[in-house]
């Protein structure tokens, strides 16, 4: 039995999306049970559901709430109560709430693992191999030091091993050229650390990769600082959305092109399915003493269900233990020693 | 009369691409003349062309040559001789040769302008407004300081004013959130500098922008350090190429989908033209005492012709004077004072 704690109020649409997603998820996962967290009124719709336990919260963290508000003012928010459930037997928590707040509250309530200075956010992006590439960090940490990038590599390896069943997933360090001499001082030193960790058998280090390697599927995991990760994610989302809209515009420009669109529909649908970002929904917050997954705020029921499924897979495959084991190994090897002169972490919206 | 100096040997294809491009360019630009730089054998094909002056070089910088080789060993390369022509009356130089070498040789021969610590590379990316967004820096400078980002903003403003005829193009600072408190220390300080320059009337500063704003067309110019710029450019190229190939694959998967492709061809062609990156070929090297434009190494004749046209527009609209004026203004205002403790610049491939 895997128990998921669900913040039913999070995201742009709240229960109108999360509850149908939970229902569909329960049907396809007979050994899952859910803790549904929300206001009494919102949870009315789930009254009497099998394998579901309602837990009430009186407040909701909105998408615009600052970290400050989420942490200090809304102490009975559905987000916070849902995370708290990890201490009461839930194996993993899922929320579509705002990223900054979710990371801050998770970090406050759960604390980080020994050997992890900063938790990271890992997501997946589709690649040419019809698989996906895991990228981290995605916005939680700016001004990273080399040691942090090594920690991200270890955290990402544990994630991919757990969720995708690859024992030794390959790791690439995002850089502006494949040669080891490229990049900033931080990246060069990170490259040395990752190489040493690879030689010590702690990770499967491929070497430097470039932005286009994410989509080539050159490696399983791409590691970068949170600033670069956030920029590349938002750039990719913006480009994909623009291209999608351009296709739509061209196929609806004239009565004739609309007719063509009808004929081309099955092909266009296959293309759409192939790059459907909803299938890849569910980013992992890694490095905490508990498993938290973040759904896209604008997720629909199908997308939120995918996030639940990813969270379920991670919990079922003991992601938390794996992360702890891997981080422990690198700590023992003296590779992940916390850097001195740490800069206060920051969380992106 | 605008005189362009063309490195005919650069790029993946050399004269087989550059000479046809030059021919087409001359036809549509009756007041242009070209200095064609290459080996005697390679320039045979252009013998007797009107408005063309051949200048011989005995060596060629390959796409794999290091900066070291380009600078110190191949002293009679077509790239170097082409840049040198700027001192003999040419108004602008165009090369499809390797970026690192082109920047290094340009910098060595031309030197930077007063008030510019590091030259930048600016390119354009298509946006939703069916226009384009200028992005810099794209790989020449890692570990940028706030003062460098301000310089990039001023250089970019001069470029867009000259090439696109916008008197006061808007500038956005690439960040991980729109709020001024987001981002690394460098970005925050850069934001303050850019705001001050905006208030002083030196640039038209919009504020922070995010990765997706490049494609939204939120601002005319997006400023970032060379590491981030290189990552976002390569990520975008990789994603666009993957999506294009996916469309192709879906439309050729079965005999039926091939038939559908025939019917949909005019629509697909219009889409293809709309996002054709060849139309946007021609990146500017800014901040030097001379105008140099860089074509994509894999450019075909059409793409190389676009790079020639962009370079021509820049020279015709006195880009160099404009850059000098703008940089001079900000220097006088005490905004672009060179930072102390400068880190050695680095050039990306």
Automatic annotation (TrEMBL), chains A, B:
Name one matching Pfam family.
FA_synthesis
Organism listed in the record: Rubrivivax rivuli
GO molecular function terms attached to this record: phosphate:acyl-[acyl carrier protein] acyltransferase activity
Q: What is this protein called?
A: Phosphate acyltransferase
Q: List the EC numbers from the record.
A: 2.3.1.274
UniProt KW Lipid metabolism keyword: yes
GO biological process terms, alphabetically, are: fatty acid biosynthetic process; phospholipid biosynthetic process
The places in or outside the cell where this protein is found are:
Cytoplasm
Q: What is the lineage of its organism?
A: Bacteria, Pseudomonadati, Pseudomonadota, Betaproteobacteria, Burkholderiales
- Any keyword Acyltransferase? yes
Q: How does it assemble?
A: Homodimer. Probably interacts with PlsY.
